[in-house]
Structures are given as structure tokens and as C-alpha cells.
Specification:
This is Calx-beta domain-containing protein. InterPro entries: CaCA, CalX-like_sf, Calx_beta. GO terms for molecular function: calcium:sodium antiporter activity. Keywords: Calcium, Ion transport, Repeat, Signal, Transport. The radius of gyration is 25 Å and the shape is elongated. Strands 6, 8, 10, 12, 13 and 15 form a 6-stranded mixed sheet that branches. Strands 9-11-7-5-14 form a 5-stranded mixed sheet, with no helix packed on it. The protein has about 200 residues and is mainly beta.
């Protein structure tokens, strides 16, 4: 790669070959070495040049034919009591192929159902083909009384195909799976703590 003084950055074009057959994530590396600076007008005239610290790059090819990995963005969420409805988002990453059902359940902690929150104790999210996120709506009850911080939990169950004839699509390795965060702790904080003086 030749780099002139006109450009502050250049790109290395790499063609990724699409394969319809499901594969696990694949990766390769790009290494920059032996930097050489040459005058644009005189090829024999060289300038000092070195390779920086970030001289290696790892490129990971994620197979988007996968049905996806389902997860919360984090293990802990903090909301104020006056938020109204809290929409807990479930993300679908590493692919979004096919129609998938993912069950969930809500359990009490120090926060109690019908006193501090309103929601079905269990339910199922129906992810259509190509959909990468959905919400679990949870109503937070504001009783206008000062209370200590309370919490409750939401758990994701094992995702399954919506239709039985999807099971053999792109081999068993392409089936929907759970991601990193399958339990979410929601902390409800008294809204008076957030009022500005």
C-alpha cells in the first residue's frame, strides 16, 4: 500500500464471500509492517516512518444466517419510580433468520406486583424473520410516597422456532440460542432523589 502526504488515512478493500450454508464465526488478521514514506515527486527520496501501536487488526465474520442469540443489554437496569412504563428491550444478535419465540418470566424481589409494578408474570416474545429487538413492557407504579429502592427480576427462557418445520434450517448449529445476559435485575429508585434543587 502506498500512502501519500495528501491522505491521512487509506482503506484496505477485502471482499467477503457469502456462503448460504451456516458456519460458526470465522476470523482473519491484517498486519501492517515495514512502513515506508517516499516523496511523491521523487521515489528515491525517503522520510522516516514507523508503524504505530495498533498495527494488527482482527476481522470477525459473523454468519447472519444464524437464527440469533437473545439477550438483555445488561444484567442491571435502574429506573425511577415516575418513569411510567419501562420497556425492557430484548436484543437478537449474531443473526436474525427465521421466526423465533422466546419465553420470559418476571419475579418479585423487594418490589411487589400490583403494588410497585404491573406486568404479566410470564409471556412470550414473537420475533419475526429479520426482527432484531423487542420490548417487554412493565408499568412502574408511582404512589407519591417516599420509599427505599426496590427491585425485581426478569428471566429469559430458551428460545424455540415458531414452526416445527424450521428446525432443520441451515443445520442444527443455526438454531436460536441465549446470549450473555439472560437475567435482568431492575432497580426502581424513588423519584424524589432525582429532583433538582
Amino acid at each position: 500500500m502506498e500512502h501519500t502526504v495528501i491522505n491521512s488515512s487509506l482503506s484496505v478493500p477485502i471482499q467477503i464471500i457469502y456462503n448460504e450454508k451456516y458456519k460458526t464465526d470465522q476470523k482473519f488478521h491484517v498486519h501492517i509492517y515495514q512502513a515506508k514514506a517516499v516523496s511523491e515527486n521523487d521515489a528515491n527520496k525517503e522520510y522516516p516512518a514507523t508503524v504505530g501501536i495498533a498495527s494488527d487488526a482482527t476481522i470477525i465474520i459473523v454468519d447472519d444466517d444464524h437464527a440469533g442469540a437473545f439477550s438483555f443489554a445488561s444484567e442491571v437496569f435502574k429506573v425511577t419510580e415516575n418513569i411510567g412504563t419501562f420497556n425492557l428491550k430484548v436484543y437478537r444478535t449474531r443473526g436474525a433468520r427465521g421466526n423465533v419465540n422466546i419465553p420470559y418470566k418476571i419475579t418479585e424481589g423487594t418490589a411487589k406486583l400490583k403494588i410497585d409494578m404491573e406486568a404479566a408474570t410470564s409471556g412470550t416474545l414473537h420475533f419475526k424473520d429479520g426482527v432484531t429487538s423487542m420490548d417487554i413492557p412493565i408499568k412502574i407504579i408511582n404512589d407519591d410516597k417516599y420509599e427505599k429502592t426496590k427491585d425485581f427480576f426478569v428471566f429469559l427462557g430458551v428460545p424455540i422456532w415458531q414452526n416445527s418445520n424450521q428446525k432443520d434450517e441451515n443445520e442444527a448449529d443455526g438454531k436460536p440460542v441465549l446470549g450473555a445476559h439472560v437475567r435482568a435485575k431492575i432497580i426502581v429508585t424513588e423519584d424524589h432523589e432525582f429532583k433538582q434543587n
